[in-house]
Design brief:
- This protein is an alpha+beta fold.
- The chain has one domain: 3-Layer(aba) Sandwich (Aminopeptidase), CATH 3.40.630.
- It is 30% helix and 19% strand.
- The strands form four sheets. It has a seven-stranded mixed β-sheet, sandwiched between helices. Strands 10-9-11 form a three-stranded antiparallel β-sheet, with helices on both faces. It has a two-stranded antiparallel ribbon with strand order 5-6.
- Helix 3 crosses helix 4, helix 5 runs antiparallel to helix 9 and helix 11 packs antiparallel against helix 12.
- The longest helix has 21 residues.
- It is globular.
- Belongs to the LytR/CpsA/Psr (LCP) family.
């Protein structure tokens, strides 16, 4: 039976994951002091993985248990209205989940000392699940893609989140404007969305223990170094006054701890494909974590499951369109970690206009048309170049 629900929640639940951004009215207010605008690389690969892990709760043969148990395990995950009017209309099947499901996954670079309106979303992923609910596709949108941001003209798409968060919009406002921008650009409407924050993310990976990551090209970290054999952020390492040894990710496949997997997946400089290689590495991490969660017993062990969801509650804000998380999970129970297909935009290369600005290629726009028509499998079969080279 399809899950029936109104598209948008009538009110927002307090987001315990981001207490510093709440006000008494339930919205995350603008910071009291304007911080300087940063243009640094984002702090993490942003997985959006935990949402992938949530999806996998009921995957495969073994289901964790009843909806009551799943509701108990996921109760700490904050929920909010992240889509606004970019959610699917009734004509698009917006009041049930028996058709294709499209999710917007956003990763943000944020620390508590930063104002909530001074954050951009540099990881933007569209998750498409066909009406058969037995497969999932990940499509990354390049952060520098030129887009028409409603009310703000043409700019890099990652600025949409920051614009929406300003003037009291908070992170919900940022996500809503991002969703609206992507809908205007691609025509894709969404069933739900998730915002992932770096602050609590390492705990999620550590709960899983490690993930298997394949490094396709040796790269030195732009963000971390070893001090006395321990990995540290460069800014903290410099404060010690001790010798710093660069963290280098060697070519090959291996099990990585949380800090190493996140650091590798956020590298952009030093890679042949720059941000496009980083997109593929981020997708690889999502798949690796979802696969680990389904294969090591985490999702069939109530104790491990609760640990994972507790960590998720500190890193995630989720919008499933008013449907309970348990109902959403049971609807998606046919998807497993092995069923995640990673796709790339622009053939994995920078696609520029005559004046050097990045835009989506005609083939990429056709791919989003296939998402709207729920014919992505046929499109991928006819255009294998869109498949990511990462496994």
């Amino acid at each position: 039976m399809p899950v029936q629900a109104s598209r948008r929640p009538s009110s927002l639940e307090p987001a315990d994951a981001f207490p510093s951004q709440r006000s008494s009215g339930g919205r995350r207010p603008r910071g009291t002091a304007k911080k300087h605008i940063r243009r640094k690389d984002p702090l993490w690969a942003r997985l959006t993985l935990i949402f992938g892990a949530v999806l996998m709760l009921s995957s495969g043969v073994a289901i964790v248990g009843t909806k009551v148990l799943i509701n108990q395990a996921t109760k700490n995950i904050a929920q909010g209205n992240l889509l606004g009017d970019a959610g699917k209309s009734s004509a698009e099947g917006g009041k049930n989940l028996d058709g294709p499901v499209d999710m917007l996954l956003l990763g943000v670079d944020a620390r508590e000392r930063w104002a909530p309106d001074d954050v951009r979303s540099d990881s933007i992923i569209v998750l498409h699940i066909p009406a058969s609910h037995d497969q999932a596709y990940l499509i990354s949108i390049p952060r520098d893609t030129q887009a028409e941001i409603p009310g703000h003209g043409i700019d890099k798409i990652n600025a949409a989140f920051q614009y929406g968060a300003q003037n009291g919009g908070g992170w919900e406002g940022g996500a809503q404007l991002m969703a609206k921008t992507i809908k205007k650009m691609t025509g894709v409407s969404f069933d739900g969305a998730a915002i992932i924050n770096f602050g609590g993310f390492k705990k999620i990976i550590d709960t899983l223990g490690s993930v298997r990551i394949c490094v396709s090209q040796e790269v030195a970290s732009h963000h971390m170094s070893y001090v006395d054999g321990k990995p540290m952020w460069n800014a903290d390492a410099k404060k010690t006054g001790k010798e710093m040894t660069p963290v280098v990710h060697k070519k090959g496949c291996r099990e990585m701890e949380g800090w190493a997997a996140l650091d590798y997946s956020r590298q952009r400089y030093g890679l042949d494909g720059g941000d496009y290689d980083r997109q593929q590495n981020q997708q690889q991490l999502i798949k690796a974590m979802a696969k680990k969660a389904t294969e090591d017993g985490t999702l069939t062990n109530p104790v491990k499951l609760n640990e994972l969801m507790k960590a998720a509650g500190k890193a995630l804000v989720l919008d499933v369109g008013g449907v309970s998380i348990a109902d959403f999970i049971f609807t998606m129970r046919g998807v497993t970690g092995n069923d995640l297909t990673m796709l790339r935009t622009n053939g994995g290369k920078f696609n520029s206009t005559a004046d050097g600005k990045e835009v989506l290629s005609p083939l990429t726009m056709q791919m989003f048309q296939a998402v709207r028509d729920d014919k992505l499998a046929e499109f991928v079969y006819a255009n294998p170049s869109v498949l990511s080279t990462r496994k």
